[in-house]
Amino acid sequence: MKKKVLFLCTHNSARSQMAEGYLNSSYGDLYEAFSAGTEVTSVNPYAVRVMDEIGIDISGHRSKKIDEFFGVRMDILVTVCDAAHGACPMFPWTDERIHAGFPDPSGASGSEKEILEVFREVRDVIISFIDEKFG
After folding, report:
1. Is 9 a catalytic residue?
2. 117-127, pLDDT tens digit by residue?
3. Is 66 tagged catalytic?
4. Do residues 40 and 63 lie in contact, with contact meaning Cβ atoms separated by under 8 Å?
5. Which single residue of 7, 40, 115, 134 could bond 19 by disulfide (Cβ 3.0 to 4.6 Å)?
6. CA distance 3 to 13
7. CATH number for the domain harbouring residue 94
8. Side-chain half-sphere of 115: how many Cα atoms within 13 Å?
9. What is this structure's pTM?
10. Domain around 25
11. Catalytic residue among 88, 98, 100, 125
């Protein structure tokens, strides 16, 4: 039986979306990943682009509020940003809670090339974390 993992971020636009996509793509035989935010926005197009670069399509993802998962049993809850970690409501439907604070690529500025590089760096840190923790 697959373990259910919920990645939680503030806006559910980049970090948590990339983590959900990578875990499902790379370890989908062992885990079923979901993502949500303490607020709802939209999936960042740069996150979609950098995941596509490594062959993972998250273009069909949508931003979801944590409320959608209240009462849904999860094996592991992973907060991927410090703000979500601090603001995360009580979530008693999980067995394990992990905090992995990744930098927010959404605040990147500069040229498109520079912004993409920031997103790639964060993507790669997320991948390393997932490979180490779930691989």
Report:
1. yes
2. 999 999 999 99
3. no
4. yes
5. 7
6. 23
7. 3.40.50.2300
8. 14
9. 0.94
10. 3-134
11. 88
